Amino acid sequence: MRDAEHETPHGETPYSPTSLLRALTANPYGVSTLRPQEHPAAEAAPPDNRYTRVLTLVIALLLGFTVAVSVLDLRADAASEDGPRAVLEQEVRDTRAEAEALEGRRAELEGEIAEAQGSVLERSEAGAADRLSAYESAGGSVALSGPGTVLVLDDSAPLPASPGVASGTVNRVTDGDVQVAVNGLWAAGAEGISVNGQRVVSSTAIRTAGSAVLVDFRPLSPPYRITALGDPEQLQDAVEEGETGEYLDEVSTRFGIRVSWEPGEELTVPARAAGTLREATALDGGSGTPAPETMPTGGAGTAPDEGAAASGAEEDSP
Fold first, then answer.
1. Which CATH class for the 143-159+169-269 domain?
2. Which tens digit of pLDDT belongs to each residue from 137-184?
3. Neighbours of 306 (CB within 10 A)
4. Is residue 313 classed as helix, strand or coil in its secondary structure?
5. How much is the pLDDT for 122?
């Protein structure tokens, strides 16, 4: 007996030659659509009723409430006094306070060293104190005051939107800009220079790290105030008329870097931090002058003896 589940509407089995021939010659456009109750996904779809919709809504509300409570708890922990951010901020404040205390102690020790040095120089030869003062001024070890000018370099204002430039873009002052300005002031005859309170000497490094400009390995932030001691008008005119002035005009025109001058009658450039003494040599006698050379012992009587011997030889010779 044939299985009713595998019979075709015409009574053949699905694998009989007649059934295969009928399938090959059948009109593909004559296939009737499935009835709703025969659709494959009809049995898998859940019943659409009010109870199911209410249950789904309640579950969604519970999940949303749980997520909101978790987020609020995390924010409360982060804002609490024991949170990681608060701990880091406290460590930064403690480190800054410790650094300020050490800086004050360093200043006190430098004052004591200067007093001891002055007392020693008073007992030294004449002119030693003046020479030391000149050396310290050249090396930036002492603060200098007098008339001068301040060259201010600042980032550009937020730029408007333009092709290739987003609205609000700011062009930053680079370490190269500061280097050019400092070198121009030296060439103009500046007697002393500092950048944002950092003394600049021949061995000072001006570099960049990320978006910060480092002067003597200390990060600075804009605006960069370059203080130069000397004749204010002469310094400004020499800079503006030279290559430095052309460079500053170009960066100001092309990139919007703000450049300004502030002359002053009483400006100060601070002293550079004292370096670490690694080697010292004591002078002979402690007077600061080399000991006079002495003649070798017996050197003065050698020539007469030789002369006498020579004359005696001459007398003995026939």
1. alpha beta
2. 767 777 888 999 999 999 988 877 777 777 778 889 999 999 999 999
3. 10
4. helix
5. 74
pLDDT along the chain (318 residues), means of 10: 50 61 64 52 58 84 89 70 74 89 84 80 74 72 88 89 78 92 93 91 86 86 92 93 94 92 91 70 58 40 38 37
Contact 249, 179 (CB under 8 A): no
The helix/strand/coil state of 260 is strand
Give a three-class secondary structure readout of the chain: CCCHHHCCCCCCCCCCHHHHHHHHHCCHHHCCCCCHHHCCCCCCCCCCCHHHHHHHHHHHHHHHHHHHHHHHHHHHHHHCCCCHHHHHHHHHHHHHHHHHHHHHHHHHHHHHHHHHHHHHHHCCCCCHHHHHHHHHHHHCCCCEEEEEEEEEEECCCCECCECCECCCECCCCCHHHHHHHHHHHHHCCCCEEEECCEEECCCCCEEEECCEEEECCEEECCCEEEEEECCHHHHHHHHHHCHHHHHHHHHHHHHCCEEEEEEEEEEEECCCCCCCCCCCCCCHHHCCCCCCCCCCCCCCCHHHHHHHHHHHHHHHCC
Q: What angle do CA 290, 296, 299 make, to 5 degrees?
A: 145
